[in-house]
Specification:
3-stranded mixed sheet
Length: about 325
Protein backbone atom coordinates (compact mmCIF):
# COMPACT_ATOMS: atom_id res chain seq x y z
CA UNK A 1 0.00 0.00 0.00
CA UNK A 2 1.45 3.37 -0.99
CA UNK A 3 1.31 5.89 1.86
CA UNK A 4 0.37 8.68 -0.57
CA UNK A 5 -2.80 6.88 -1.67
CA UNK A 6 -5.76 9.29 -1.27
CA UNK A 7 -7.79 8.81 1.90
CA UNK A 8 -10.96 8.10 -0.09
CA UNK A 9 -9.29 5.02 -1.62
CA UNK A 10 -7.85 3.43 1.52
CA UNK A 11 -8.57 3.15 5.22
CA UNK A 12 -5.36 4.71 6.51
CA UNK A 13 -6.18 3.86 10.12
CA UNK A 14 -6.64 0.17 9.31
CA UNK A 15 -3.50 0.10 7.17
CA UNK A 16 -1.48 1.70 9.98
CA UNK A 17 -2.79 -0.86 12.46
CA UNK A 18 -1.85 -3.71 10.08
CA UNK A 19 1.69 -2.38 9.73
CA UNK A 20 2.03 -1.99 13.49
CA UNK A 21 0.97 -5.62 13.99
CA UNK A 22 3.50 -6.71 11.37
CA UNK A 23 6.21 -4.72 13.18
CA UNK A 24 5.42 -6.67 16.36
CA UNK A 25 5.95 -9.92 14.44
CA UNK A 26 9.18 -8.78 12.80
CA UNK A 27 11.01 -6.48 15.25
CA UNK A 28 14.12 -6.48 13.04
CA UNK A 29 12.04 -4.61 10.41
CA UNK A 30 10.20 -2.36 12.87
CA UNK A 31 11.86 0.84 11.64
CA UNK A 32 10.68 0.56 8.03
CA UNK A 33 7.24 -0.76 9.00
CA UNK A 34 6.52 1.81 11.72
CA UNK A 35 7.62 4.70 9.51
CA UNK A 36 5.05 3.59 6.94
CA UNK A 37 2.47 3.20 9.70
CA UNK A 38 3.20 6.71 10.95
CA UNK A 39 2.69 8.07 7.43
CA UNK A 40 -0.75 6.48 7.35
CA UNK A 41 -1.54 7.92 10.79
CA UNK A 42 -0.63 11.38 9.53
CA UNK A 43 -2.78 10.96 6.42
CA UNK A 44 -5.71 9.83 8.55
CA UNK A 45 -5.41 13.05 10.57
CA UNK A 46 -4.28 11.29 13.75
CA UNK A 47 -1.01 13.18 14.14
CA UNK A 48 -0.58 12.49 17.90
CA UNK A 49 -0.58 8.75 17.15
CA UNK A 50 2.04 9.31 14.45
CA UNK A 51 4.21 11.13 16.99
CA UNK A 52 3.79 8.20 19.37
CA UNK A 53 5.14 5.86 16.68
CA UNK A 54 8.15 8.11 16.07
CA UNK A 55 8.79 8.19 19.84
CA UNK A 56 8.46 4.40 19.98
CA UNK A 57 11.27 4.10 17.45
CA UNK A 58 13.47 6.75 19.05
CA UNK A 59 13.20 5.18 22.51
CA UNK A 60 13.62 1.60 21.28
CA UNK A 61 16.58 -0.40 22.53
CA UNK A 62 17.23 -1.53 18.95
CA UNK A 63 19.64 0.69 17.01
CA UNK A 64 17.96 2.58 14.16
CA UNK A 65 19.28 2.61 10.60
CA UNK A 66 18.48 6.31 10.22
CA UNK A 67 17.59 8.02 13.53
CA UNK A 68 17.86 11.49 11.98
CA UNK A 69 15.20 10.60 9.42
CA UNK A 70 12.86 9.57 12.25
CA UNK A 71 13.57 12.83 14.11
CA UNK A 72 12.99 14.88 10.97
CA UNK A 73 9.64 13.21 10.33
CA UNK A 74 8.66 13.73 13.95
CA UNK A 75 9.53 17.44 13.76
CA UNK A 76 7.54 17.91 10.57
CA UNK A 77 4.55 16.13 12.07
CA UNK A 78 4.69 18.05 15.37
CA UNK A 79 4.67 21.42 13.62
CA UNK A 80 1.56 20.44 11.67
CA UNK A 81 -0.54 20.18 14.83
CA UNK A 82 0.71 23.12 16.84
CA UNK A 83 3.97 22.02 18.51
CA UNK A 84 6.15 24.57 16.74
CA UNK A 85 8.68 25.13 19.53
CA UNK A 86 9.46 21.41 19.90
CA UNK A 87 9.65 21.02 16.12
CA UNK A 88 12.11 23.90 15.82
CA UNK A 89 14.28 22.43 18.59
CA UNK A 90 14.47 19.09 16.77
CA UNK A 91 15.27 20.81 13.47
CA UNK A 92 18.07 22.79 15.12
CA UNK A 93 19.44 19.56 16.58
CA UNK A 94 19.46 17.86 13.16
CA UNK A 95 21.26 20.81 11.56
CA UNK A 96 23.86 20.75 14.34
CA UNK A 97 24.39 17.00 13.96
CA UNK A 98 24.88 17.39 10.18
CA UNK A 99 23.78 13.88 9.07
CA UNK A 100 25.28 12.52 5.85
CA UNK A 101 21.95 11.29 4.49
CA UNK A 102 20.02 13.78 2.30
CA UNK A 103 16.53 12.66 3.41
CA UNK A 104 16.43 14.34 6.88
CA UNK A 105 17.69 17.59 5.35
CA UNK A 106 14.96 17.59 2.71
CA UNK A 107 12.23 16.95 5.27
CA UNK A 108 13.24 19.67 7.74
CA UNK A 109 13.94 22.23 5.00
CA UNK A 110 10.57 21.59 3.35
CA UNK A 111 8.90 21.81 6.74
CA UNK A 112 10.41 25.27 7.23
CA UNK A 113 9.39 26.21 3.70
CA UNK A 114 5.79 25.06 4.16
CA UNK A 115 5.49 27.36 7.18
CA UNK A 116 6.84 30.38 5.25
CA UNK A 117 10.23 30.30 6.95
CA UNK A 118 11.90 30.84 3.58
CA UNK A 119 15.18 32.29 4.82
CA UNK A 120 15.72 29.41 7.25
CA UNK A 121 14.66 26.89 4.61
CA UNK A 122 17.22 28.39 2.24
CA UNK A 123 19.92 28.21 4.90
CA UNK A 124 19.07 24.57 5.59
CA UNK A 125 19.07 23.53 1.94
CA UNK A 126 22.36 25.38 1.38
CA UNK A 127 24.02 23.84 4.45
CA UNK A 128 23.06 20.37 3.21
CA UNK A 129 24.26 21.03 -0.33
CA UNK A 130 27.67 22.22 0.87
CA UNK A 131 27.95 19.24 3.22
CA UNK A 132 26.86 16.46 0.87
CA UNK A 133 27.96 17.58 -2.59
CA UNK A 134 31.59 17.74 -3.63
CA UNK A 135 32.71 20.21 -6.27
CA UNK A 136 33.28 18.75 -9.71
CA UNK A 137 31.44 15.46 -9.10
CA UNK A 138 28.07 14.32 -10.37
CA UNK A 139 25.46 14.70 -7.61
CA UNK A 140 23.98 11.37 -6.48
CA UNK A 141 20.30 10.86 -7.26
CA UNK A 142 19.36 11.07 -3.57
CA UNK A 143 20.68 14.65 -3.40
CA UNK A 144 18.59 15.96 -6.32
CA UNK A 145 15.67 17.01 -4.04
CA UNK A 146 18.12 19.22 -2.13
CA UNK A 147 19.13 21.03 -5.30
CA UNK A 148 15.54 21.34 -6.50
CA UNK A 149 14.27 22.53 -3.11
CA UNK A 150 17.02 25.12 -2.83
CA UNK A 151 16.26 26.35 -6.36
CA UNK A 152 12.55 26.62 -5.51
CA UNK A 153 13.13 28.61 -2.32
CA UNK A 154 15.58 30.96 -4.01
CA UNK A 155 13.02 31.69 -6.74
CA UNK A 156 10.47 32.54 -4.06
CA UNK A 157 13.01 34.83 -2.39
CA UNK A 158 13.85 36.50 -5.69
CA UNK A 159 17.53 35.50 -5.50
CA UNK A 160 19.71 35.41 -8.61
CA UNK A 161 20.93 32.10 -10.00
CA UNK A 162 24.19 30.75 -8.59
CA UNK A 163 26.34 27.72 -9.42
CA UNK A 164 24.14 25.34 -7.39
CA UNK A 165 21.04 26.53 -9.26
CA UNK A 166 22.86 25.86 -12.52
CA UNK A 167 23.68 22.35 -11.29
CA UNK A 168 20.00 21.82 -10.41
CA UNK A 169 19.10 22.76 -13.98
CA UNK A 170 21.53 20.18 -15.37
CA UNK A 171 20.11 17.25 -13.35
CA UNK A 172 16.49 18.27 -13.95
CA UNK A 173 15.00 16.02 -16.66
CA UNK A 174 11.38 17.18 -17.04
CA UNK A 175 10.41 19.06 -20.22
CA UNK A 176 9.32 22.08 -18.16
CA UNK A 177 12.27 24.03 -16.77
CA UNK A 178 12.84 24.54 -13.06
CA UNK A 179 12.44 28.30 -13.52
CA UNK A 180 8.92 27.70 -14.83
CA UNK A 181 8.01 25.14 -12.17
CA UNK A 182 9.29 27.38 -9.37
CA UNK A 183 8.02 30.72 -10.68
CA UNK A 184 6.18 32.49 -7.79
CA UNK A 185 3.92 34.19 -10.31
CA UNK A 186 2.41 30.85 -11.27
CA UNK A 187 0.03 31.04 -8.33
CA UNK A 188 -1.57 34.10 -9.86
CA UNK A 189 -2.27 32.30 -13.11
CA UNK A 190 -4.63 29.95 -11.27
CA UNK A 191 -7.04 32.87 -10.98
CA UNK A 192 -6.93 33.62 -14.70
CA UNK A 193 -10.07 33.39 -16.83
CA UNK A 194 -7.98 32.58 -19.91
CA UNK A 195 -8.43 28.85 -20.72
CA UNK A 196 -5.01 28.66 -22.39
CA UNK A 197 -3.25 29.99 -19.29
CA UNK A 198 -5.14 27.60 -17.05
CA UNK A 199 -4.34 24.62 -19.28
CA UNK A 200 -0.64 25.54 -19.31
CA UNK A 201 -0.64 25.75 -15.52
CA UNK A 202 -2.34 22.36 -15.20
CA UNK A 203 0.39 20.82 -17.38
CA UNK A 204 3.08 22.37 -15.17
CA UNK A 205 1.39 21.17 -12.00
CA UNK A 206 1.06 17.63 -13.36
CA UNK A 207 4.76 17.56 -14.21
CA UNK A 208 5.72 18.82 -10.76
CA UNK A 209 3.37 16.41 -9.00
CA UNK A 210 4.71 13.48 -11.01
CA UNK A 211 8.28 14.29 -10.04
CA UNK A 212 7.29 14.75 -6.39
CA UNK A 213 5.44 11.44 -6.22
CA UNK A 214 8.33 9.59 -7.83
CA UNK A 215 10.75 10.99 -5.26
CA UNK A 216 8.38 10.54 -2.34
CA UNK A 217 7.14 7.00 -2.71
CA UNK A 218 8.26 4.40 -5.19
CA UNK A 219 5.88 1.51 -5.97
CA UNK A 220 6.38 -1.92 -4.49
CA UNK A 221 9.76 -3.18 -5.77
CA UNK A 222 10.44 -6.23 -7.89
CA UNK A 223 13.16 -7.72 -5.71
CA UNK A 224 15.84 -10.36 -6.38
CA UNK A 225 17.25 -12.42 -3.50
CA UNK A 226 20.95 -12.05 -2.61
CA UNK A 227 22.84 -14.31 -0.22
CA UNK A 228 26.16 -12.99 1.19
CA UNK A 229 29.03 -15.48 0.86
CA UNK A 230 28.89 -16.70 4.47
CA UNK A 231 25.12 -17.06 4.47
CA UNK A 232 25.16 -18.98 1.17
CA UNK A 233 27.78 -21.38 2.50
CA UNK A 234 25.67 -21.99 5.62
CA UNK A 235 22.50 -22.39 3.54
CA UNK A 236 23.99 -25.00 1.21
CA UNK A 237 25.60 -26.85 4.13
CA UNK A 238 22.23 -27.16 5.85
CA UNK A 239 20.16 -27.77 2.70
CA UNK A 240 22.38 -29.35 0.01
CA UNK A 241 19.52 -29.76 -2.47
CA UNK A 242 19.53 -25.98 -2.98
CA UNK A 243 22.92 -26.33 -4.68
CA UNK A 244 20.98 -26.75 -7.92
CA UNK A 245 19.82 -23.15 -7.49
CA UNK A 246 23.26 -21.87 -6.45
CA UNK A 247 26.11 -23.78 -8.19
CA UNK A 248 28.68 -21.29 -6.87
CA UNK A 249 28.83 -17.90 -5.18
CA UNK A 250 30.18 -16.24 -8.32
CA UNK A 251 27.36 -17.71 -10.41
CA UNK A 252 24.88 -16.47 -7.81
CA UNK A 253 26.14 -12.87 -8.08
CA UNK A 254 26.24 -13.00 -11.88
CA UNK A 255 22.71 -14.39 -11.99
CA UNK A 256 21.41 -11.52 -9.84
CA UNK A 257 22.93 -8.82 -12.03
CA UNK A 258 21.85 -10.63 -15.19
CA UNK A 259 18.27 -11.06 -14.01
CA UNK A 260 17.99 -7.41 -13.01
CA UNK A 261 19.41 -6.19 -16.30
CA UNK A 262 16.99 -8.42 -18.21
CA UNK A 263 14.05 -7.07 -16.20
CA UNK A 264 15.25 -3.49 -16.77
CA UNK A 265 15.58 -4.03 -20.52
CA UNK A 266 12.02 -5.38 -20.64
CA UNK A 267 10.75 -2.15 -19.08
CA UNK A 268 10.11 -3.41 -15.54
CA UNK A 269 10.35 -0.38 -13.19
CA UNK A 270 11.54 -0.07 -9.61
CA UNK A 271 13.87 -3.02 -9.25
CA UNK A 272 15.54 -3.96 -5.99
CA UNK A 273 17.71 -6.45 -4.12
CA UNK A 274 16.92 -8.08 -0.77
CA UNK A 275 19.57 -9.79 1.35
CA UNK A 276 18.71 -13.09 2.98
CA UNK A 277 19.94 -14.77 6.15
CA UNK A 278 19.60 -18.43 7.03
CA UNK A 279 17.74 -17.90 10.37
CA UNK A 280 15.31 -15.52 8.71
CA UNK A 281 14.73 -17.95 5.84
CA UNK A 282 14.17 -20.87 8.21
CA UNK A 283 11.66 -18.81 10.20
CA UNK A 284 9.86 -17.92 6.97
CA UNK A 285 9.73 -21.57 5.90
CA UNK A 286 8.30 -22.54 9.29
CA UNK A 287 5.62 -19.86 8.96
CA UNK A 288 4.68 -21.40 5.60
CA UNK A 289 4.68 -24.93 7.08
CA UNK A 290 7.27 -25.92 4.47
CA UNK A 291 10.84 -27.20 4.39
CA UNK A 292 13.66 -24.70 3.77
CA UNK A 293 15.01 -27.11 1.16
CA UNK A 294 12.00 -26.34 -1.05
CA UNK A 295 13.40 -24.07 -3.78
CA UNK A 296 9.94 -22.69 -4.60
CA UNK A 297 10.05 -20.82 -1.28
CA UNK A 298 12.97 -18.64 -2.39
CA UNK A 299 11.03 -16.14 -4.55
CA UNK A 300 8.28 -15.99 -1.91
CA UNK A 301 10.91 -15.23 0.73
CA UNK A 302 12.31 -12.43 -1.44
CA UNK A 303 8.84 -10.93 -1.90
CA UNK A 304 8.20 -11.09 1.85
CA UNK A 305 11.48 -9.30 2.63
CA UNK A 306 10.61 -6.59 0.10
CA UNK A 307 7.16 -6.16 1.63
CA UNK A 308 8.85 -5.64 5.00
CA UNK A 309 10.86 -2.73 3.60
CA UNK A 310 14.14 -4.62 3.18
CA UNK A 311 14.67 -3.97 -0.55
CA UNK A 312 17.55 -1.77 -1.74
CA UNK A 313 16.99 -0.02 -5.05
CA UNK A 314 18.88 -1.28 -8.10
CA UNK A 315 20.98 -0.11 -9.87
CA UNK A 316 23.10 1.87 -7.41
CA UNK A 317 24.86 5.05 -8.44
CA UNK A 318 28.00 4.13 -10.41
CA UNK A 319 30.16 5.71 -7.70
CA UNK A 320 28.27 4.02 -4.84
CA UNK A 321 29.39 0.75 -3.25
CA UNK A 322 28.35 -2.29 -5.24
CA UNK A 323 25.34 -4.24 -3.96
CA UNK A 324 27.42 -7.45 -3.72
CA UNK A 325 29.40 -6.18 -0.71
CA UNK A 326 32.78 -6.04 -2.44
CA UNK A 327 33.35 -2.43 -1.24
CA UNK A 328 34.18 -1.51 -4.84
CA UNK A 329 32.23 1.16 -6.73
CA UNK A 330 29.31 -0.37 -8.61
CA UNK A 331 30.64 1.05 -11.89
CA UNK A 332 33.88 -0.88 -11.44
CA UNK A 333 32.28 -4.07 -10.13
CA UNK A 334 28.96 -5.57 -11.31
CA UNK A 335 28.00 -2.31 -13.05
CA UNK A 336 31.04 -2.46 -15.34
Amino acid sequence: MRPDTPAENVDHTAEAARLERTADLYPEDAEALLLRAAAHRELSGDRPSATALYDRLLTSAQELDDPYLVRALKASNLWEYGHEAEARAIIDGIRTASPRDPAPWVIVAESLESHDELEQAHETFTQAVHLLLADGTEPPRATHPLLFGRHRVRRMLGAAHDEWDALADTVHTLPITLDELHDPKRVWSLGSENPAELEAEIIRLRAELGAYREALSRPFPVAVLHWPAGELTELLSAYPTLAEEYPSYGDHLSAIEGALRELASSGTPNLGIVTGTVPSYEAFAASELASPSDATLLPQYATTLAARGRAVAWPPERSAACWCGSNQPYGECHGA
